[in-house]
Amino acid sequence: MAKDYRTIAEVAGPLMLVKGVSGVKYDELGEIKLANGEIRRCRVLEINGENALVQLFESAIGINIEDNQVRFLGHGQELGVSRDMLGRVFNGSGKAIDNIPEPVPEKMLDINGSPMNPAARDYPNEFIQTGVSAIDGLNTLVRGQKLPIFSASGLPHAALAAQIARQAKVLGKDEQFAVVFAAMGITFEEADFFISDFKKTGAIERTVLFLNLADQPAIERISTPRLALTTAEYLAFDLGMQVLVIMTDMTYYADALREVSAARKEVPGRRGYPGYLYTDLASLYERAGRLRGNKGSITMMPILTMPDDDKTHPVPDLTGYITEGQIILDRTLHNSNITPPIDVLPSLSRLKDKGIGKGKTREDHADTMNQLFAAYSRGKEALELATILGESALSETDKLFAEFSKQFEQKYLNQGNNVERSIEETLNIGWELLSILPKEELKRIHQEYIDKYYIEKKD
């Protein structure tokens, strides 16, 4: 039977010390009853003998250490999950905020999930179409993959996230596809943008939204991605759905971890982040994947903003170690009105070769992708050379590559946030651009594909 404790010894910021407890466990939930009858929630962070250090979900204002009492509930934070969560909007605590009654849960799940046995994992090898050429054509997303988006302050990652959420699909299969969208530390305007965009396009019907606003507690920011992933695991592994999880912004999540760590007076690591940041991020990212014998899957696209556009910042740095590539947004492209401003040269999808080719996308996809990368890179070099030495220093072939580079950015990368392209359209645009170049320069494409897809210029 749960006990009520009137032994609150100290309250410091988001932390509270309760003495004389027994049978209390790490990560257990608790309720604080104020003198006016108000109930606030807390979670056990640390047990030291008979002392429990707990973290407050809400503000500490109004808590009186003499009059208030604490009750521990005997379990960690749980989420009631059901198919009816699709089309609904929840806050960072898992409570519905769309003015509709709470869905009736089919089961209660611990939000920390269960580790996925590495031996039971199935290899990601099926294409997911996002409708964005820079991703589908050159940095392909594969079902079960973890592919983060590295952005920066002022870049349109929110619009790209919404575009991917409403356009993503599995091709050629009669399978249910769902999106779980988790937003952490966002403004009210951003939250309103996501909700209205999904409702306007009808994408809300297959989406579950978890929204944590910037003025809400740090503890909610820490639990939001776990709620989203618990929902995704239920939809994928219990209901057999193909689930895409989009989480933005992981930098705000890491900042919440740093805030709690500082309050606990832990020894800080790089830039003040806790030393366990890598482990904590891995506990989230590694919940994506496929299970052998289960037709469901979880594909993850975490989004993070790099402070000062610094790729060596701890959050993008550690994220890069755990995940399978990165999509990088570029400020120069954004300033040139390229939408979405994806810089494809430093971007990488380590599993792209597994999800393309005959029977998945098209037989010429791999060759086209490699040639586009090579031609764009050479074109950028030619443009830089022209800037330094003048256009007269370029050979006729270099001028063609420079023109290719300009056309590539305008026609391939620049598609806007409201245009969805099929993989067929993306590959055809690639061939249209490659046809700017002479056939003899297409050294990375098999001759049979050149004969089939190359567009001859008309005199």
TrEMBL record:
UniProt cross-references to SUPFAM superfamilies, sorted A to Z: C-terminal domain of alpha and beta subunits of F1 ATP synthase, P-loop containing nucleoside triphosphate hydrolases
Is Ion transport a UniProt keyword of this protein? Answer: yes
Q: Where is the ATPase F1/V1/A1 complex alpha/beta subunit nucleotide-binding domain?
A: 131-349
Q: Which GO molecular function, any one, fits this protein according to its record? A: proton-transporting ATP synthase activity, rotational mechanism
Similarity field? Belongs to the ATPase alpha/beta chains family.
Q: State what this protein does.
A: Produces ATP from ADP in the presence of a proton gradient across the membrane. The V-type beta chain is a regulatory subunit.
* Protein name as it appears in the record: V-type ATP synthase beta chain
Q: Which gene encodes it?
A: atpB
